[in-house]
């Protein structure tokens, strides 16, 4: 795959520091969490993990809507994530020091 395509990766959702006025005249250049929604793009989204890890994005999720599954990547080091969890509908994940049931994500 052409890495130039990955270099322009645009996440489906990002959690960033600041408020509305912080980004009135500019876009954020980093994020605390990046989320990709994978309906048919899981393979491409997994390739993006190295881009986000290289940018030191602390958390990266690929949300598989059909499977109700989340791939949660964390601890970026040298362009790779050290941790990967595959979370099912009944699991709990930790985000920003808080435990979150994946049921909340799916609305169950």
Task: List the topology elements.
Elements lengths: L2 H5 L5 E3 L17 E6 L3 H13 L4 E6 L4 E9 L2 E8 L4 E4 L2 E4 H5 L2
Parallel strand pairs: 2-3
Antiparallel strand pairs: 1-2, 3-4, 4-5, 6-7
Task: Walk me through what this model shows.
This protein is α+β, with helices and mostly antiparallel strands. Helix content is 21%, strand content 37%. Strands 1-2-3-4-5 form a five-stranded mixed β-sheet, covered by helices on one side. Strands 6-7 form a two-stranded antiparallel sheet. The model has no long low-confidence stretch (mean pLDDT 86).
What is the gyration radius calculated from CA atoms? 14 Å
Termini separation comes to 37 Å
Order of helical and strand elements: HEEHEEEEEH
What is the mean pLDDT? 86
Unreliable residue stretches? none
Helix content: 10-25%
Q: How many beta strands in the DSSP annotation?
A: 7
User: What is the overall number of helices?
Assistant: 3
Largest β sheet strand count, sense and barrel closure? 5 strands, mixed
Structural class: alpha+beta
Large-scale geometry: globular
Quote the beta fraction.
Answer: 35-45%
Considering the chains and any ligands shown, give keywords for the structure:
alpha+beta, 37% strand, 5-stranded mixed beta sheet, two-stranded antiparallel ribbon, 108 residues
Describe the structure concisely.
This protein is α+β, with helices and mostly antiparallel strands. Helices cover 21% and strands 37% of the residues.
